Predict the structure.
Amino acid sequence: MFFNFINKKRKPKIIAYEEHKIDKNLIDKYALRIINRLSYFGYEAYIVGGAIRDLLCGRKPKDFDVVTNATPRQIKYVFNNSRIIGRRFKLVHIYFGSSIIETATFRKAENIAEDKKASKKEEIEENYSKSNSRTNADTIYGTIEEDFERRDFTLNSLYYDPANETIIDFVDGYEDIKKRVITPIQDASKSFKEDPVRMLRAVKYGALLDFTIKKPVFKKIKKHAYLLKNISSSRLYEEICKIFKSLKAKEIFIALEEAGLLEYFIPFLSEDLKGNEKEKIVKYMEKMDQLLRDDENINTNIYWAILLFCRMKNYKRAILTYRKQAEIIFACKENMSKMSIPINVIDYTSRVFVLLFKLEEENNPRTDKKRFLKNINIYETVKILEIVSDNLENIIFWKSMEIKKIIPESPPNIVQKDKKFHFYKRNSSKKPKKAITTKNFNQENM
């Protein structure tokens, strides 16, 4: 059941600028442009969710999401630089160069469970995608008073109106942020059963923002942790990527382990944190987070090498025959393939491991090691070497090389235009072949 203030449909609190003190200059200019244009066409539009939460917590938001009462088709009509995405519930991506602002329509809360059932039935999903009638849209889209009910936590349910610089708060989310408390909008059990990923996000917000999860809610997280088994591994992988980029992965992974979620999230890491290598893994993660803070050029995928290192250390300073290299690649795939990690990330991690152990191979003279400088993964591998190696002399040698990140060049026969790749042959001396017709066939064979 929803809380009483939701059932009573209590009027929202309007929090003025004098109280929240959010500087409008900190808000993405493209998000403001979208809201102004939608308002010009007579629609409501607000910034919603994590961006407002982060601004109130003194953090720099990574994304600014816009919500409006305009339907996706209406948004598309207003913005030529937009694209409708999604199948069951459609969103609009509005493009400004390399920036993308996600814009959604107010949605009714009661359709969340129905949409999930519909996704499992191909007939319902097909009918949904084909139907464009206004009556169908009315059953999905709602008002701002209905939209807040479908959100996960009170701290993510604040709406910012840049026109008068006020925050609209239906669920006391502003007070929860001031108290640094994480509160589900619905009953915790119902919310977590409806979408188990909310348990991951609750723990992540707690570690990332230093917020408190109340004991009753934390107990329900531990109780319903097994529900993560039902979540697709690709969706869990997206959450892992967000954790890597948070720059506080160590705190988040430890909190997930304490909540009993990590064994369903990254099974091999949960096993290692329960073993004798826990202190070493925690130390590696802490150094990795600091490295990502200091160096923006680092590929966050190297975090997998840090998490897997204790399982791969048996190959350290070994003679890397082709068979040994094949064993390293197989070990990486065995641990990572269970989580629907893209094959290119698995290949990248295995290549980094092979190069890492080659850099520490004692039998190779240093003059011979210089051939590795042309390797495309040398920059990230040397950074990992600084974290995990205990051979100080070897670290000093590689740091003295002043290695720079190698950016791969695109193939010469590929041209990128409007985010699409066009393949063609350059400087081709051959004339294009003509279509064979009765006339030219007779001429060529006379």
